[in-house]
Amino acid sequence: MVYETIYKDQKAVTVENEALRFLFLPDTGASIASILWKSENKEMLIQRPGPNYRRVAFDGSYVDAECSGMDDMFPTIDACHYERFPWNGVRLADHGEVWNLSCNTELTSTSASFTVHGVRLPYIFSKKAEFRDDFTLRLEYNVENPTPFDMDFIWAGHIMLRAEPGVQLQVPEGCKAAQAVFSNTGWIGAYADEFSYPAFEDARGVLRDMSRMGEADGSCEKFYFKEKLIKGGCSVSYPDGLRINIGFPADRVPYLGILRNLGGFMSIYNLFVEPCTAPFDRPDIARQMGKCSVIPAHSSYGWHLDFSVTKP
Predict the structure, then answer these.
(1) How would DSSP label each residue in 276-288?
(2) How many secondary structure helices (H) and strands (E) does the chain include?
(3) Which residues are within 8 A (CB) of 253 and not within 5 positions of it... i.e. 6 or more apart?
(4) Tens of pLDDT, residues 127-153
């Protein structure tokens, strides 16, 4: 079923079947406010308390907004300036533009499609949500570059999953080295420092398993796996056996970022999973590292993201 509804004080679109319910917010880039496992009434995403959904003006700070659910970060993650002609010097907004733009919405009995037009870069960003089977929803993405110039970009899925001690992250084979991009404690090192995954000895000399969530300790740490993924996808398993699988094509979305938030960010305990087209949070830095993603002139870039939830 696909139908219009309300989430807090915002327009919403529900896409659901007997097992799962997804709630999209068309006025905030069709962000996903909720992924509900219906048989147990279990919410998979972080939601914020209160009856009002926090909004900020365009180019406002993401952390001043609702900071919940899953949204699309495009064409950057961190605020920065585009560095190549013809948009050199153009400021790219914090968390990108898409999360803070209203969508054109088209609904059918089985699907919901959302489209936004870029503000500071002239792209057309669209995604379509539709169930593939009883337990899997696919988001089909396409970004069009109608200009005669190549366009650097980053897309990342900003997936704020609920977590608890004992939650386990499974990643593809080959994810053996990671690079830090943020740590409020310094335990995983400074920007671009490398460490082994999943187990390594941190800056305190403590042996840690970065694939498993521990007790809240006030830390907040983000890293990217250093190498391109051999196979797209990852999964998160909960102590009660519930498992959420996130699938994507490695040839189009070749990198994966992880943010372990054990209370250090906004006093929330959760796990961020960020499949992305390029790492390091900014397209200019990704280019410097030789890991940029590009939409060719007069062309488009497409990929998909699958969410499936299972329990034995």
Answers:
(1) ESSSSSSHHHHHH
(2) 1, 26
(3) 155, 229, 232, 275, 276, 277, 303, 305
(4) 999 999 999 999 999 999 999 999 999
